[in-house]
Amino acid sequence: MCCSGFLKVMMFIFNGGIFLAGACILGVGVWVKVDSSSLLGLLDDVEGAPSGLSQLVNVAYLLIAVGAVLLVIGFLGCCGAVRESRCMLLTFFSIVLIIFLIEVAGAVVLLVFKDLAEQVLDRLEDDVKKSIKEKYGSNERFTSLWNATMNEFKCCGYKNYTDFDDSPFYIDHERDLYPVTCCNETIAVCTTDNAEFSMIGGCFTMLLQLIEENAVIIAGLALGIAALEVAAMVVSMVLYQNIGNKA
What we know:
mainly alpha
């Protein structure tokens, strides 16, 4: 009886952790989906961008789905322990096992992508610069997206302010004016001299940093949840066996 009670408490602890992790992941997924100023959105207007890279934005849907599933799993595990239902415990074990395998595979993919991100983004440099020279200042959506991104991440162009040379914006302003984010905040008019003096970094570095940090965080979170799931699976099977022996 004491052992059974202890197992129930452990199930509550493990599944409580899984439930909270699911809520966090669901929240992050919703935030990513709502955040229209994401740097990844800039790749939508780059003709030479790999088709798979722009689909990274859809990671929000994956996070939402995983978060929702983890919420259900946490609830299912707690109910199975309280009601001592072998059917619910077995269903819980099966679902968690499948999710566990998917999470491990996903964490490995994210860590591998993190190492490849710099190479992929570096190959996009010419295409991104070309799109800036063709559209910045003439395409309202493209210009607004770049302005929002540069303002949020305090960066300028893909690599630096010279990426805007010969763009419609640059030509319309007598070839001596850059976006205000390409200069220090204390400078009101961002001329060529001011932009060169300010030396604001490009968004390439920010995008790379964003991908690397998020990849590590998500992979680490997935591995942490995986550890909880392993413990929960072990406890659920022991509890499943004990309920069977009682019967």
